[in-house]
Design brief:
The chain is of the alpha+beta class and about 375 residues long. It has ten helices and 16 strands. Strands 1, 2, 3, 4, 5, 6, 14, 15 and 16 form a nine-stranded mixed β-sheet that branches. Strands 7, 9, 10, 12 and 13 form a five-stranded antiparallel β-sheet that branches. Strand 3, helix 2 and strand 4 form a beta-alpha-beta unit. The longest helix is centred in the C-terminal third of the chain and has 21 residues. It starts with a helix and ends in a 6-residue tail after the last helix. It binds glyoxylic acid and manganese (II) ion (MN) (2 copies).
Length: about 375
């Protein structure tokens, strides 16, 4: 979890590995592990590599971390041959991508891309602690965040290796795949307000049960998303207050996450879900507040970088398979300042965001070899 004790330990370990691989490495102002391997001359623009160090609850080991250690391994391979390239390499282990702690995602990559929203500093975690206070406790003064924004031109491209988190590569018997685009997402927070009351005395007809209303809303989200083949919709978090067996729930807060490969489809569906929730609330005389926590449009990978990645895949002896990403990634934020591309590595059963997440050592090696090959053949411009 972002800015936790465990995050500190993981970040320190990653910084140590970065230094062992021959890089200058430091904790930056938003809590990223940030490292640089100079090119043929100091101060050249960089090829940026990386992924995130944070995880969801009860996560697997590879979502995020695989991309960070693969990138470090590639630099280590260069360093051990004393090889310098006509560009620098930066490897970033982003402190927050998942957004679990503060409900708003891509904090590390947005800061680097210069699109960190200062309002996020006021977001509170489940214990009520604000992000600004959590940063300060981690030894990071929030006013320094703008200093880590990279200038346009300083980053030639961003390339990320990540587990697929889906079943396509496994089904096709391929260890790696080249990503075409990252689906867009919308995240909402819905609050329904009814009336708390005694579970034994208030007649059913007279109740304004916020949780029963939320149950209707959850089913409406599921039904709407099921009707649209390319879209997915999830209510992943729900809290009922006061939360006692013998009290009618007076207030409920739940999340809605909607993703799609087309922004128009996603925007229309989010509007439809909002109006369904409002109707359900009105029919049950519940108060209703719907906040948009975050939205990102579809992020396309750059064709010239995809082609370079595909050539690396072929040189390493694998068949090229292109596929879109249903999951969000740090590249969505980096796209604000540079072109991006991604390489997916096959995972078992398509399972991710679960302790059952698993990959083979052979596939990890295949991914790292393709990434190293891509780096060494990287063409600075079209
Ligand atoms: C990140 O893993 C996301 O897609 O939510
Ligand atoms: Mn994830
Ligand atoms: Mn991830």
């Amino acid at each position: 979890m972002f800015l936790s004790r465990e995050a500190r330990a993981a970040t320190d370990q990653v910084l140590a590995w970065m230094r062992e691989a021959g890089m200058d490495a430091k904790l930056d102002a938003i809590g990223n592990a940030a490292a640089r391997y100079e090119g043929e001359r100091p101060g050249l623009p960089c090829l940026m590599l990386g992924s995130h160090l944070d995880t969801v609850r009860d996560a697997g080991k590879y979502d995020g971390m695989l991309g960070v250690i693969s990138a470090i391994e590639c630099v280590h391979a260069l360093h051990s041959r004393k090889k310098r390239l006509p560009f620098a390499i930066e490897v970033i282990g982003f402190g927050d991508e998942e957004g679990v702690r503060f409900g708003t995602t891509l904090l590390g990559s947005r800061a680097i891309a210069g699109i960190f929203d200062r309002k996020a500093l006021d977001a509170a975690d489940a214990t009520g602690k604000k992000m600004a206070a959590a940063l300060a406790e981690f030894g990071l003064p929030p006013e320094r965040i703008p200093e880590i924004a990279r200038k346009k031109g300083a980053v030639l491209a961003y390339a990320e290796l990540h587990i697929e988190q889906g079943p396509v590569l496994e089904a096709e018997g391929l260890p790696v795949g080249v990503v075409t685009a990252i689906n867009g997402f919308s995240r909402l927070r819905v609050t329904l307000r009814g009336a708390a009351g005694h579970a034994g005395t208030v007649p059913m007809k007279l109740r304004r049960d916020a949780l029963a209303g939320a149950a209707d809303c959850v089913l409406a989200v599921e039904k709407t998303a099921r009707g649209l083949p390319e879209l997915v919709g999830t209510v992943g978090r729900i809290e009922a207050k006061p939360g006692a067996i013998n009290v009618i729930p007076g207030e409920v807060v739940f999340s809605v996450d909607v993703r799609a490969p087309h922004d128009g489809l996603r925007n229309q569906t989010v509007a439809a879900i909002r109006s369904q929730i409002e109707k359900i609330a009105a029919a049950r005389t519940l108060g209703c507040e719907i906040e948009t926590l975050q939205e990102f449009g579809v992020t396309a990978c750059a064709p010239r970088l995809m082609q370079q990645m595909e050539r690396a895949v072929e040189r390493q002896g694998y068949r090229v398979r292109r596929l879109p990403s249903g999951a969000g990634h740090d590249g969505m934020a980096l796209a604000a300042i540079t072109e991006i591309c991604m390489l997916f590595v096959r995972c078992k059963g398509g399972i991710s965001h679960s302790p059952l997440e698993s990959i083979t050592a052979e596939d990890a090696a295949a991914g790292a070899k393709v990434l190293c090959d891509f780096i060494e053949h990287f063409e600075l411009s079209a």
